[in-house]
Write a sequence for this structure.
């Protein structure tokens, strides 16, 4: 039975640790392809073009939108972010699950286009812990941290649109939970209609 690839959308407040979970998940299991987004924000120290993001100019980003090269895009704290279409479509057609680590407006655009997508929201164990993690990163100015905390308040309103929450208290446990959620999703009857029909036909022929 050929398995169909699923789009897994992972959102979470800035600093909730979704990037760390995704890195650990893809290092542990080779079942998943991680989509690399395009963004107009500047690279942080240590980030590389084509690894964390494709860092592009405003003009380049607008060209991508015009050419229908993105499956979703959104503005986030003064910058654009978007998911390149080709990578996602190629992986899905190969039966590979694709993970999109994107914010909530993009997540809702994906849910509209791909009803089959599974949406996860990564939460910190507490709000104070979220602020500590943002400060501890040391790469963000106080002003940007304040903007990101405000954005977290706004995004918290939309969590019920997601299928699952994952609490990032312990990294290994969070990684296992994400893996189990995705593997369980593959076992839904709606994703196995062909197999169900085959067994039904076989039963009728016994
Ligand atoms: P950061 O600047 O911290 O890397 O990302 C800021 C926010 O943008 C995060 O919530 C991240 O998940 C989100 N983001 C990253 N790539 C995309 C994308 O392609 N589309 C959307 N809608 N959000 C994205």
């Amino acid at each position: 039975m050929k398995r169909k690839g699923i789009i897994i959308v992972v959102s979470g407040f800035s600093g909730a640790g979704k990037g760390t979970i995704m890195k650990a998940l893809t290092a542990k299991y080779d079942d998943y392809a991680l989509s690399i987004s395009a963004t107009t924000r500047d690279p942080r120290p240590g980030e590389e073009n084509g690894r964390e993001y494709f860092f592009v100019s405003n003009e380049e980003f607008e060209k991508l939108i015009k050419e229908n090269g993105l499956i979703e895009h959104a503005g986030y704290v003064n910058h654009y972010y978007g998911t390149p279409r080709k990578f996602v479509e190629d992986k899905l057609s190969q039966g590979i699950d694709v993970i999109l680590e994107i914010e909530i407006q993009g997540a809702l655009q994906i849910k509209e286009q791909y009803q089959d997508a599974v949406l996860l929201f990564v939460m910190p164990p507490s709000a104070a812990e979220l602020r500590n993690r943002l400060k501890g990163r040391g790469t963000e100015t106080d002003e940007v941290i304040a903007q990101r905390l405000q954005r977290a308040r706004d995004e918290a309103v939309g969590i019920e649109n997601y299928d699952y929450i994952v609490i990032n208290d312990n990294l290994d446990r969070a990684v296992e939970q994400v893996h189990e959620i995705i593997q369980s999703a593959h076992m839904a009857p709606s994703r196995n209609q062909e197999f169900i029909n085959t067994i039904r036909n076989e039963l009728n022929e016994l």
Q: What stands out?
A: The two ends are 21 Å apart (CA to CA).
